[in-house]
Design goal:
Distance between the termini: 116 Å
CATH architecture of the domain at 271-496: 2-Layer Sandwich
Shape: elongated
CATH class of the domain at 271-496: Alpha Beta
Number of strands: 22
Helix content: 25-40%
Length: 759
Amino acid sequence: MSAGAQRRGGRPVVSVGGQVCFRGLRWQVVGLAGQRIHLVAEGRDEVVLAGHLFADPTFALVGPEADGKAQAPPLWGLFETAPAAARERALAWRRHIREVETGHPDGAGAGYVANERYDPERYTLAQREQAKAEELTALGFGRISRSTVQKMRLDYRKQGLWGLVDHRSTRGPSLAGRTDERVVAAVKEAIRRRRGRSKGTVKALLPVAARILAERHGDAVAMCSQATFYRLVAQLTDPRDGLHGRGDGVPGPREGRAFTPTVALRPGEQVQVDTTRLDVLAVFDDGTLGRPELTIAVDVATRSILAAVLRPHSTKAVDAALLLAEMAVPHPARPTWPNVLRFTRSSIPHREELLTTNGRLEGAAARPVVVPETIVVDRGKIYLSETFTAACQSLGVSVQPAPPHAPTAKGIVERTFGSINTLFCQYLPGYTGSNVTERGRDVEQHACYSVTQLQDLLDEWLVHWHHRPHNGLRHPVLPKAKLTPNEMWGALTAVAGHVPLPLSGRDYLELLPVRWLTINDHGIGLGQRTYDHDLLGPYRGQPSPVAARAGRWEIHHNPHDLRQIWVRLPDRDDLVEIPWIHRDHVHQPFDDRTWDHIRTTALRRGNHDQHEADLAQALDDLQRRSSAGHATRTEQALLTRAMPARIPHPTHTGQATAQPVQPGREDRAGAPRQPDTAGRTAHRPRAGAGPDAGDGDTGGWEDTESLDGLDTEPDTGEWPDDHNEDDDGWADEGNDGRSPAPPYTGLGLWNAHQEAERW
């Protein structure tokens, strides 16, 4: 008995005595017992579960009735989209097809032949098809031939009812309408050539398409009208073509690339990191307004923002490296935050177990703590730097650069930036919008937060973010219920576990950039700066134990604060801090950009030690002028990333190095002192420094030779009366009933007209 000896619903079934193909062999079915099927082939016998047998890709029925006779499943979804008349005609055709195949309009299940003309035992299939064609023609179906009946029967076997539908009623309108296909092909080719270039007009594309049409078909095909051409371009283009939108060259489905969603099943399996400008103005440390840069790390599995760092200017590799440490350690809760934002008061699942595992969560904010396994970054310089990759290796983190020209590879972190703008930035003063068309009028005139204040607000808002239901977080059992990042973190932690990563201050120093330098008699030289300490005494002029670095020593430095470095010594476990020899002279942190600017503008006088002292003096002067608003815009921008403190200008002479402050003249903020003329004398220009210098001036005046030109003259304007006379900070002379003139500090108001007259 063959496999097709018995049929059910028009489909062949497996029965005892039938034959099947399984694992490359031909088997005979010798027994059926519930879900078990007994197979025999060439002296072998097997007992296989029916579900396993049917799911095997090598399974197939054997027999003449099994080949090409299986009816396709009904495509009810597509069938319901057809018009009612087309559906009724298809149902009528199905009855006729069944009658041709089985002899009864309801199929073989009827058990008898309704019309002897279609009896399979008496007539062949070709004869039955010819008889059905004659019958349908007589019934008014039109002129139906045998080939038409055969085609409809085969379509029914392949597509079910959907194959019997007249698809002329379901075919959508053509994008090109009735335009000649050769013209449409020329327009498509012109659009393809335009892709990737700068945005142009549609009118400029018309002669290109006409030239392509003439090259292919000559004068045989006429070009369409301008109106038709505009309509074709509007229908055939997409934003990547650079005609009706932004042509960013993003590959899409037309190139065959599928948009595969990123899937992560445990916290930290994949973390996406990116940097962008925040759409809000902030007050930088020098008083100027600007848009700070935001760097965030988003966990794909939980949609948690694990870390967020704001920087006034461009982010450095050390910022990205320290971002790793911020992900893996609990974030401390601020004392002013509500108790509901603390981890101990949160509704995170398995909270007690997490507190037992990681004791530092006791005083932490209600945010996930995740140690990343893989970090997806773009191909920016900071993320491919040795500093960042070395920091990832020290923490056991894999770095996966995103493919080029594929912004969707980091789609989750890109979308998170949009959420930060809509849920956080737009409620802040100084919000600029995502583009100039959305920017308000006189945004720069509004009161704005400083970068430090923005960072505090962002840290608090991030705790609220993790308590907010996220549309991308849904449990498979409850697909309609949205989960919060904290809830998803707790649920996945129960499955994947949580291992705390203890990081100390030593670990943070290990993440700083590394330089390999020598220890000389005068200390360690780095960027025209000298770092020295008594601890370096036994190692001066000695090679390091690291032979691979040619005897150089491992030095760690912070690019945002160059006042000290850290060196690894063989007799100590931790990195040793080595200060800059002029650290006490410069009171504010400074970065490498500020130092390079000072180094190119200060004059070299004497030996190297005197030159370094001059650089320190010029750096301190620049920071003080910036605090008083006298620095240039470039100098103010260089000092933006520092952390300035309002300190007094030291009293100095014409020498480049600073002199001790006279007793009784401590320049503390708010300390009263008597004005005198000594301060004015102390700030006179050095001899030979200006254009009116005598014969001793051999080098001439250059704009880049000194940074002290802004505070060489006193302010001659009147000092306004203070409304609070008791707290004016100056001694009352009592001569003319007015407050005495303030002491000269070298930080007077800049008067451009007065300066021009002086020169």
